[in-house]
Amino acid sequence: MTLLRDMTPTELFKVLLEIIENGDTSNEWNSDVECTNVQRVLEHSYVMLEHLKFCDEHRKTRFRKKPVVIEAFQMTKERRWDNSDWPVWLNKAWQANPGEEGTIWIDPDAPIAEGHESAAELLCGTLDGLRRIDWNDWIIKGVINELYPCKPDIFEMTYDSV
Question: In the chain, what are the helix, strand and coil shares in percent, each to the nearest 5?
Answer without folding.
Answer: 45, 15, 40
